Amino acid sequence: MVYGDDGHINMDPDEEVRTAVADVFALFDQHGSALGVVRSFTGRRFPRRDTGVWAGRLGWGRLTHGRAISILKNPVYAGAYAFGRNNSTRKVQPDGTVTSHVTRRPREQWTVLIPEHHEGYISWSRYLQIETKLAANRTSTGARPPREGPPVCQGIIFCGSCGFPMNTNYRRTDGTADYVCTRARSDAVLTPGCHTIAAAAVDPGVVELLLAALTPEQVSLALAASDEIHHRHRRSHRAAELAVERARYEADRAERAFGQVEPENRLVARSL
Ligand SMILES: [Zn+2]
């Protein structure tokens, strides 16, 4: 978003910038996580408008996880005007240096919030949905969002020794998975009972118990969910195909345009 001299907030005038920001929200809809958005942006550049002395200058870089989160959480993209979202505290350290620390305030404590203040990429209600989804995704606070992948216990298995959730690690060599207690990894000396266990050792037993406990309706629900995942993968595949098609078309067009240039003008064409 750009702030005009008249105090108005407008969408970025650059189309590539607008597309990139709109894609952050579209990809969040598709993947349901900031990590999914970042992964989809691999190999694609992301815009950044400078602030300070170079205010407004357009630069390009990588879309980081932090950047994706800050866009998804920033009400300005949802057409809202907000002020006072941060708390800034400064501390003088024993050696005399001053450090400042910025923390986010909960929405109820923002100084000013005016929804539908300007044109945004998403609606205010969508903004609130994203906020809820992001909170549900925060595994560090104990949330266990559903995960995709072959190991059946990922996201729901807890360490029998310390009781903390276990992570799923895929082995580079053969792609099989292990459930790993994060406690064991960070401090195996203090938690000798924490272990890593191969998914192949746990999963068959869990599957057997699960099938014994499931009703036919629950099975059809699970099949529907699996179809949805399949479709989602096909859609992202299709998007990649379209991108290749577009790139081919553009290369073709550039080649034709180049071919039409008179020989004496070729030098000019090359420098354009
Ligand atoms: Zn443990």
TrEMBL record:
PROSITE patterns for the chain: RECOMBINASE_DNA_BIND
Sequence ranges assigned to domain Recombinase in this UniProt record: 1-140
GO terms of molecular function: DNA binding; DNA strand exchange activity
Name of the protein in its database record: Recombinase
Protein source organism: Actinacidiphila oryziradicis
